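Why show two proteins at once? Because comparison is the fastest way to build intuition. When a single record is shown, students tend to memorize it. When two are placed side by side, the eye starts asking what differs. So, the first record is below.
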Amino acid sequence: MHSVPTCEPLPQALVAQLHELFEEKIVFNRVMGLKVTALAPEGVSGRIVMRPELIGHYAHQRMHGGVTSAALDAMAGLAIVVAMAARQPAATLEKLFAKLGTIDLRIDYLRPAIGPHFDLHAQVLRLGSRVANTRMECRGADGELLATGSGAYIVA
């Protein structure tokens, strides 16, 4: 089994490129308002601030489940790119990102996503030569677990 490397903090230039890629170049992430808050080969974190455009149920003001799913999928992809960059420091982000694709995604919605913001976390469980497996979670502003996810991604 290939484990995810634990290594030094990411170079600042790489951190800036990752922020630009995931917050600006991926337009749907920008539409969701997804902001990266932590980057490390061991896991990544992000945040979405609630806005009226993200409401799925108008009477309860809860975030649409599709936003939760898409955000967790994006965070898993980010975690994989960071882990691959740590393993292959000479590779460009564009090259790493071009290889990445979702094979399978499972989201379990545990509680309604109601609140001022949502914190997202993802970690790579296994980074193989062809497939990566991830675990993700979405928490409310109070830290309560709202949704969990797991995914399998092609990386070759």
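Second record. Ask yourself what differs from the first in the token line.
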Amino acid sequence: MDTKHCAVDGWVDAIPVPGPRDTVTFDLVVRPADIDALDDDAPDTIITCTSGDPRITHELLNGIQPGDLLRATGTLVQPPTPGEHARLTVDALEVLDTALVPVLREMVLDRYGDYVVIFDGNTDAVPVFTAHGQWVGLADNPDAIATLINIHERVNGGDA
């Protein structure tokens, strides 16, 4: 397996997801510096990132949202087969730019890995379900979603 220690700048694709053993996983969308030289339909590069560092995990679960521009530094492992995403084990994280705060006007479904949440612009409370439809609970506000999912995974062994 080919590994390399590097720094990668990219946009957070979706809300980071808590994982087993106090880890967190998220995808970075990386665009090359010479993007103007590429075809318009050239695909973006997606790098799947994981971290078990408690400070990084806390920041990702509580302060990062889709669209934030991050610099993730760590060990990059090239995919074993073409077409799969490269994996980066993050040991340092820097927020380069933040996304605009979304304004919810209607109900919106969003996915947190194996979980589905329903945002309603008229209330702060957020219902949380597994992707299979099992009730997880009601988060008091969007900031409490990760805590609710973490508790559910600890009680149920991490299987949604």
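One difference worth noting in the second protein: The chain has a mean pLDDT of 83.
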